[in-house]
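User: Um, what's this?
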Amino acid sequence: MVTKKKQVRVAFYPWNVEGTFPVGTPLLECARQLGIAIPLYCGGIGICGKCRIRILKGHMAPTAADQEWLSDAEIKTGYRLACRCTIQDECTVDVEQTAVEDKSEILTHGLRQTIEPAPAVHKRFLQLQPHQLKDNTTDLEALRKAIGVRAADTAVPLSLLQGLPELLRQNQFSGTAVLRDDLLLDFENGDTRQHCYGIAVDLGTTTVVAKLFHLDSGRLLATSSRLNSQRTFGEDVISRIGYANQTPGGLAMLQDTILADLNDMILDLSKQQGIDSSHIYQMVIAGNTVMQHLLLGVSPRHLAEMPYVPVFKSAFNCTAAELHLTIHPLASVSIFPAIGRFVGGDTAAMVLTLAERRQQTFLAVDIGTNG
């Protein structure tokens, strides 16, 4: 017979939020489930002493890490390191000092060079001829014919094939074809040619910036930025690698956290412009090597061990659906290639911006969490 652990109430000040958790639950897990972010600069292994909280009610015995980082007076007045605490009984915790919202300004603008747009995604409004008894064509053949000879061999996803009969007949055989290179992404109701968008993301260790572009014109429409929520698992990439390796389910938690950030930013960008996020057909992401591994849910473990080997460094493409991103499910999500080890896709993106200025010499300095 399995005995259920006693459930106790845990409250967090100054938010006045509380929940019920089993005895023995890590305090950090209680905070995360209640939506409270406590920064872990060392990844939660108790070696930085910065995640100080205060027990206002209840009891938590001090640990060796508490005794190393806190004075006797602090321990007597209830101070503890959040990363070392586990719930033993009903308690109220003051996290004001460690979870104060960061007011840092995030750089979201810079110099932009003029380029001639050549988007991989484009749209065509089509008026197909309804089938006749004498015809011997299928719905798909009719759609391909309307697109043109050059698209005769266009690949079609199963999801589109399944919905094609209704799509064609609901709109009297008219609609907008969405094409990406040799793939027919979608066939949309009505004329949606003006709604063709993409997002570029600077995926930093500390901050994330996303920009919404109109693909046909190349025009920048909106910008969204925020602190990277993975900071609660470690301030730098080495701490996050440690968290991913040493915590059960840690890698999945890190991936889910950054994907949630991106989905919040997608929602923000869509609201700013009043657009349907399903009309976003491309996302391009550049970050350092570790951040790109974590985004894809790929273990970066061996990047922290000699001889520091990444799982991949070439450009990588997947669909939005595979990452549960809330844009068009078949939208292409492109990850920039890394140059090697810790010289990642962010540096490759920088080099690309200078590609048109080959007659000049540049010194590029990335002043980020990792320099």
